[in-house]
Specification:
Length: 428
């Protein structure tokens, strides 16, 4: 008889979980992890941590809590991951005019190099049933991608729609599984056509029975060499900024002039066509996952929580990749717990204290000023001369020009300071 309540509890917990953990793009604690490349396997021979099927990373495991106490119930073991971009469609126009996915360890459709991974359909659908989104990621570091025109990009959008999303094709790499959107990890091949591509995907998805998400994974230097102009033109749902392999990476978080999450937040709120776009901290999930940018979990947690409390566009953390995170002591679960402890929803600006920036005023190094709703700290030569005068050849990070002094670029000389976010200003 004891089994009956247990079973009832089990069922109700499942239903409950299904509601609570449905993907919500507006949350502040989402974790996105790339799957598909077995990045851990590239540098380690320990097959125990090699990539597992995608469904393995989606299991909200229900455990039998206590036999001894006879108060049996089931509870979720963990639910660390919210979004799984599948990496990668790395060639847009391969054999037979079809795209190519890598790695290709299965049969390909006749006349193409497009892998037939239809065996993955059930696994992907399982992840979706657990409230996760699974997207197809285009590009990657070694990608042979790019368009020559908007028309070519639009046609390719139809191909992607038919192969992976809500369209139809005889050559769907994941069979019946209907993925939840597209991630653009474009690291070469220029910007041509991507805005048209996104617009076409949005158009095909309009009126669909479920939401489709568009995400991008630019490098942290702002603006991104390939996606910079694209994300200015068309709305994205989330930007997984790669804070690694660059000076602006997580390893330099404490260097004011390097860490630029604030610049991305400013872009999100002032430039992005989608004012609700979410910015993620993209991080390597272990020391072997990237050339630079890996930081221990305690550091990433501190940084992510600080950004979450400082910037309203913050959406969570992106990790590269599932295999690395699992091999590194569940780095994914640890960051999820740090984020969730800070809350999925709700944002309040910290109180402000820095004085408002005054055009033409002399500032010395280390001084802070508030400007455009942000706290900045002066960088540059010490002591700085008559500050805030434009220096030839210095890129204006945010395109902010003070109207009071025509040739006066505030952001040439002030950088966001991670130490000063406590004094964050929105005093309107
Ligand atoms: C794709 O693979 C599945 C499973 O191996 C097979 O049943 C199907 O016929 C293949 N599709 C094509 C078009 O080759
Ligand atoms: C590749 O094919 C094997 C055997 O047909 C199958 O077990 C495996 O799941 C497939 N892998 C993918 C990624 O579809
Ligand atoms: C981690 O954080 C500690 C404490 O702030 C700092 O001293 C250390 O340099 C950080 N490590 C990395 C790799 O950023």
């Amino acid at each position: 008889m004891a089994l009956l309540p247990t079973f009832t509890t089990f069922v109700s917990v499942c239903v409950y979980l299904g509601k609570v953990f449905a993907y919500d793009n507006s949350y502040y604690d989402n974790v996105a992890i790339y799957w598909g490349q077995n990045s851990y396997g590239a540098t380690s021979s320990n097959t125990a941590y090699y990539q597992r099927p995608i469904s393995f990373y989606c299991q909200v495991v229900l455990v039998f809590a206590s036999v001894a106490r006879r108060d049996s119930f089931w509870e979720p073991k963990d639910d660390a991951i919210d979004a799984l971009p599948v990496a990668f469609v790395d060639t847009f126009f391969g054999t037979g005019g079809m795209p190519t996915c890598n790695p290709t360890d299965n049969a390909t459709f006749s006349g193409t190099d497009l892998a037939n991974c239809s065996a993955l359909a059930a696994d992907i659908e399982y992840c979706q049933s657990q409230g996760k989104i699974v997207t197809i990621s285009l590009g990657g570091a070694g990608g042979g991608v790019g368009f020559t025109s908007d028309a070519e990009a639009q046609t390719f959008a139809q191909t992607i729609w038919n192969l992976f999303l809500g369209g139809k094709s005889n050559t769907r790499p994941f069979g019946s599984a209907v993925l939840d959107g597209v991630d653009l990890d474009i690291e070469g091949g220029g910007s041509t056509g991507y805005a048209a591509f996104v617009t076409e995907i949005r158009s095909l998805a309009s009126g669909a029975s479920k939401p489709y998400y568009i995400t991008g994974a630019p490098q942290c230097p702002f603006p991104d060499a390939n996606l910079g102009g694209v994300i200015d033109q068309v709305g994205f749902d989330a930007i997984y900024v790669q804070f690694y392999n660059n000076a602006c990476g997580l390893q330099n978080y404490r260097i004011v002039s390097d860490w630029d999450f604030g610049v991305w937040d400013m872009w999100a709120r002032q430039t992005s066509p989608n004012a609700n776009v979410k910015i993620y901290i993209g991080a390597p999930a272990s020391s072997t996952a990237a050339g630079s940018g890996y930081v221990p979990i305690s550091n990433l947690s501190t940084i992510a929580v600080q950004m979450r409390r400082s910037f309203p566009s913050f959406g969570g953390v992106m990790l590269w990749d599932t295999s690395q995170a699992y091999a590194n002591n569940r780095y994914d679960l640890a960051i999820k717990q740090a984020l969730s402890a800070t809350g999925s929803t709700g944002f309040t600006y910290p109180p402000c204290s820095a004085a408002a920036y005054v055009s033409g005023q002399v500032y010395t190094a280390g001084e802070t000023a508030s400007y455009e709703g942000y706290i900045w700290e002066l960088t540059g030569p010490i002591p700085y001369p008559v500050v805030v005068a434009r220096v030839a050849g210095v890129r204006c990070l945010c395109g902010v020009v003070d109207t009071a002094v025509a040739d006066d670029h505030f952001s040439d000389h002030f950088k966001f300071s991670p130490d000063r976010f406590n004094y964050f200003l929105i005093c309107k």
